[in-house]
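Worked Example 4.2. Consider the chain below.
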Amino acid sequence: MLTADDRYYSSLRRNIMAIIITVSMMPLLAMMAIAGYQFHTAYRHKVADHLGALVERHALHIDTFLMEKLADIRSLAAIKPLEKLQDPQELENILAIFQEKHQGVFVDLGLVNERGVQVAYAGPFRLTRAQYGDASWFQEAMSQPFTISDVFLGLRGLPHFIVAVRVEKNGRPWVLRSTVDFVSFNRIVEDLRSGKTGQAFIINAEGQFQTQPHAKLGVVPQDLLRVVRGEKSKEIYPVAVEGLDVMDGSSSPYREPTAAGTVSWFEYTVPETQARLLVFYQSLKEGRWYLFYVQESRDAFHDLYRARTLTLCVLALSALGVALTAWALSRRVVQRIIQVDREKEMMNEQVIEAGKLASIGELAAGIAHEINNPVAIMVEEAGWIQDLLQDMERGESLDVEEVRRSLAQIRTQGARCKEITHKLLSFARRTDPAVQQVQINKLIEEVVALVEQRARYNGVNIRMHLTEGVPWVAMSPSEMQQVLLNLINNALDAMEKTGGILDITTRYENGRVIVDVADTGEGIPQANLPRIFDPFFTTKPVGKGTGLGLSICYGIVRKLGGNITVNSAVGVGTTFHIYLPSGDGVVETPLQSVERLKKEEC
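Applying the procedure from the previous section yields the following structure tokens:
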């Protein structure tokens, strides 16, 4: 079981460790937090700028690809007469040239009249006389000089899109059309790749995929378009988008995308998997198509997360190093404190012993006189016996009863001397700091017995007001004897010239045993009261006092867990109050006190 000292030193060690760790880690944490935030912000902007530049260049490349194909068809319509374009064989020759030049990007060529009937066709499908009157691309081509359609299946059942140019001949509109190879176009879009999860795709204005994503994304195209168009709805899933929050009055915040050059971006949470994606986009075909680039955040910011993990590992190792250092230093400091406390305790014991010897010196005169009286009686009785023996030698009868009386008197006075010397030796014995349960009243009676003779010489009347049944107190008896003797000797010194009354009172209040030592001496000036417990402070003449008595008393009482206070007035007297914690907190009855004293004597 841990003692109070062990708990104190353990608490001290923990406090030292906490202070060292706090002082060491706070600057490190602050520095890493600031640097981490700066690096995090800079890295995110760097990634956004890099991916934005990639998307912008790729969008330009795609737009260039589409415009080149449209330019080829427009050039063909401008150069070749309509009669030539109505010749299927001529279209076959032109298609062969286009496929050789553009590596098969153009799939077929066809000429459609104003009714939507394809009158001439060159290509791998049987689409001569095909009806396109209801096709959206044909209707758009009839109303505009040229058009690029969305991706659709059409009559051939395969995804493709049309590049068409309107041709006027004799007031009648014709449409020259060509199918662009979807695989080639899709490959161009897929060339935009970064990391492990980055991919690009195109969505039209209706939220339909125009190119096929190479992996399942889980994104909802309509949701992406809502963000692009600035629509605010509870069905919008993007969260943590870079930029300023704009509340739409609903429970979900909508965040405006942030521009990275001409490319905007935001973060999107996949509804099914809750995966976080970075989404970059730019418009194509004058806003009719949108090129989207999507990449998982953990992939895009892989280096950032790795740096963060490395930073946390360094922080953990630093914290471990600081903790080990704090443990070692606190252990070393506490060991040194323990050593100093032990040395201080030994010094205190030596001071107490020195104080005890000084007290013995003050008692010497009274003890010597008290022993001198019984010794004188013993010598007188021994001389009387010797006279009786001489009378017997002269023939007179021996008075046996008188001899017995003298021997009894010698025995009584010898026992008295033995008792005095026993008390003196008991007090002079080296202090035993062992704590035990002590009856304070009995201890006071023993100390008073030592000073009674000196008190009589000084004309001091000692009165004891000892309350019966006060609890026993856990203390070192010899140390408490020292406290009481110092206070009584100081009181006797204060009344040495004038005599007076010394009242010693015991009582039990609020769980504490209280001992009052009150004299009617000269009193202590108010200016000296704050210093009376300081070591080596004394108002006695040089050579009469060491100034250690009250300091020793204060140290002993505080070590017992108690307190000592003083009230004094010049010309009235001084009263010292000793407050001691009781051993069991229970007041004994007089009968219980007597029974315990009997057991102790046994």
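The longest strand covers residues 500-509. Confidence is low (pLDDT under 50) at residues 232-261, 585-594. Compare this with Example 4.1 before moving on.
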